[in-house]
Target: DUF6788 domain-containing protein
Amino acid sequence: MSYSPPTPPQELPDNVVESLETHSPELLRHIAQYAEALAEYREREARIAEQDDEEELIEERPEDLPDDVPSKATITTKKINDNRYYYWQWREGDRILSKYKGPVNPND
Model:
């Protein structure tokens, strides 16, 4: 264990560092526990908000989504022999899977 005081992270605002330096070891431990719990709470809230955003995107999915294509799939366009085609595309693990949807209508 070092006999010199720790160096605060550069990301920590000066006013927070100055405030922490005035507190007892016991209070600093309480602050650390609270800060950890608060960080976990905010991370959880961010994940929930992200899931809500994903669910909203899923609700906006086209009605012509085939049964064997997951709701997370997106529509991509591929050019084959100077013709353009729509494909459903999604990721499963490290693989990207595709399913033919139909030709791109040149009038669209």
User: Anything to note?
Assistant: The helical segments are 14-20, 25-59. The radius of gyration is 26 Å.
